[in-house]
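FORM 7B: Structural annotation worksheet

SECTION A. Query
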Amino acid sequence: MYKIMLADDEGIVIDSLKFIIEKEFGDLCLVEYAKTGRNVIELAEHLRPDIAIMDIHMPGISGIEAMKEIRKTNSNVIFIIMSAYDKFDYAKEAINLGVMEYLTKPMDREKITKALKKAMNQVDDERAKRSNDLIIKEKLETVVPIIENGLIHNILLQEYFKEDAENYKGLLGIEESYGYMIGVVCGEEQRGNYMTNAVGAGMRLQNHYKEVRELIKESFPGVVGGLMANKIPVLVPYAASKMDYNERIELIEKARELVRKMRKRMDISFRIGIGSVKSFHNQQESYNESLNALINSTGSVAHAEDLPLVCEYEANYPIDLEKKLFEAILKGDVNSTLSYSSVYFDWMKDTYPDSIMDIRLKTIEFVLWAEHLAYENGGMTYEFCARTDYLPKVMELQGMENLKEWFASKMTEACRNIATKREEKSSSVVEKAKEYISSRYNKDMSLDDVSREVNISPYYFSKIFKEETGTNFIEYLTNVRIEKAKELLKDTEYTMKEICSMVGYQDPNYFSRSFKKNVGVTPTEYKEGSI
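SECTION B. Predicted structure
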């Protein structure tokens, strides 16, 4: 059904147009008309026409002015102008209003029919586009929460590499480098700093999750995670590295209003904790702050920066540089550790050139923390007296460059210990796996069997095996079997069936195909060529 509005002050024109439309399109069209500019505008508001056939000159408000008014409330209407005046100024203004056709009177049935068919095709295209947009929107309503929950899951469990986080940001259209986390906690009733019947309230909230998610997004346009027991974690991207006081107060008021709204809608008690702004890759810290803020407060809303929970740094302290330095150490990235160590020491030297004792203390503090990370993550053995000479050494070093050199060497040594121990562990696992394969290549063997033997997960074993050997497990096992088969074909008189079984193949035909694929000839041809 196409809704068509006719606008002309001549009754004969209206009747003629109605006759043509009914004759050509029958019941496909709902046709209504008006004879003055004001009536046309009123009719358009009521009818919401798909197509409007307009005369430019009408009593009162002109057709051009009427079109301008109609366009304000109905951007999709398709205008067709009919006029006895074939003037350039009218045509130009009509084009500016997005008029599809400009027809001159007297009416030509063929031209009108052609113009209407063209307009109907445009209406069909627009309807199809709107329908597709709704389908896409419906699908996004299903997919986006899954992607958002994946990002929150990885933030909280720290199960992502940097590139994974960037992929999530790309999928969700997040451009900011910073953000803060919000913890929405529910319960039957708030008593002091905790919620009663958290399990029961969490189960009830399952039925209201979609509504709660929408309410949260209305107040905090961000990434909403799934319900975890009685908690919903929320990530709000933020452009700056710090939030000013006024914005923080406004944020708290928003949270208070959200708590009131959710409590009224769901008849469940809510509290909201808000963490401080952190870099995108340190949102786990912000989330922990949001929950700690609730533990240390009895209000319905608590912000970490209002409580003695967050370490404050002097205005010029390079906190991001410090975090990058220790992240590089944890990754075993020696080059980045050396670079960040150098930049950090230069910052100390340039900012506090007369504070040599403070620089010495900071040097020892960072080195000890780097080694603490190495002990925790590098599989090293802790020795209580291993650092007896550190304090005397730092105190006797003369000149900033000597102190910087010692600082950089110790930081990179800690980093290298983490990297080396990981490499040693990987190498040890792979060597053990090779020995196992070598001793059992003639039996049925799977990736799961070998990973169980070396006591690590199949996924991780597959990854480090490929990194160490350059081939995957199946390729390596096949190569071992083929090499053993070549030895047997050269130096023994076993039958082909016997050799097939001796190297772990149950099907002679499959063995023959595998051998030819890897060696280039069949087992028989290889044996004959070796005689």
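SECTION C. Observations
The two ends are 86 Å apart (CA to CA). Residues 313-470 form one domain.

SECTION D. Sign-off
Analyst initials: ____
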